[in-house]
Amino acid sequence: MKKDPDLEAALHRNRRWIVNNQIKNIIMQCPNQVAPVKYLQKKFKNLDLQGKALNWIKKYPCCFEVYLENDEYYCGLTKRMMFLTQEEEDVKDMQEGLYADRLAKLLMMCRDNRLNVVKLNELRRNFGFPDDFLLRIVPKYSKIFRVVNHTGRRSSVEIELTEWNPDLAISAIERKAKKDGREPCFPCSLPQTWVKSLERFEDFNSTPYISPYLGLDGLVEGSKEMDKRTVGLVHELLSLTLWKKASIFKLGHFRREFCFPEKLNVFLLKHPGIFYVSNRYQIYTVLLREAYNGFELIEKDPLVVVKEKFGELMQEGLHEYNRRHYVLNLEKKRNRGMIMPKPEKRRNQRDETSEQDKEGGDLGGIFDPEERKRFYRVLFDDNAP
């Protein structure tokens, strides 16, 4: 798939936010909300980071506070960071009902209306679920969900839907079509120069839309109807996420529950008008094209708004760190003699000229302006009066 600079920039920006948000969550779980840097270093492998944790943390002084105690470095959160963390928790409390609906919609799209808790836990932050959603949401909405374990193994714990809500069984595509007063169909976000891709999209979009909430009755694997439902299913899943994107690798874990094709990334690459597939950081990620205007999300969840404030704070700290680092490196180079002072010959000449003018040099102090003009005419013109 041809690279889209704007969507690649969105992925690059979100990557740093995600990493620092995970570091924040690790610190919040530590006693007194302070973590030894050695402990964070051990967690770096899980965050797919290399290098020293101390160097990474120091790049964001507006987010993290580092101090030395008993020859060991510790890391906590700044006051501004703590304020945003509290704001994030307040938003989560206000949106508990929305998270319950979102979880119900996920279960309604599954084959058996059940999802494995371990698998769902890997994508919980994509959907905005709190880390303790199993204890925070499921028991509170016991009429809708229940936890089952048919094998007795901890890895086999599942969340099951116990009550079907027809008001929730409406996809984002259907909701938009109803609002516009038209038949549901997929929007296309490709330029007019992609002629062949546009032709394939029009052919695909000419058949009736199949809602992912209708189930699999009568659908044959590999058929056009099944492909249509799968595209609608992935579209709906991405519509439910905060950033309208997800890791294809993690989505592939739900192959049995959602009846995904074996090579999901290859399948999604066939629909460039709807999805954008990137291999940035050597991780296949799929984004919903229509959800972005350039590198900015068009509709932002309240939780995304808070996280963007966190991103702005992070960028502010990174800018401060880079400026400070640049000044220190410049000073070191000067001390080593690696940077020579700029020549001041021209400036000195200008200074000497200005001094001459002040002292009357170059006839400036002998004649007034009119007399000077007359003097030069006489000097260079023999016929002058």
TrEMBL record:
Short name of one Pfam family: PORR
A GO MF label: RNA binding
Domain PORR: 2-318
Region annotation Disordered: where it falls in the sequence: 338-368
Compositional bias of kind Basic and acidic residues: 349-361
Name of the featured protein: PORR domain-containing protein
Organism name: Capsicum baccatum
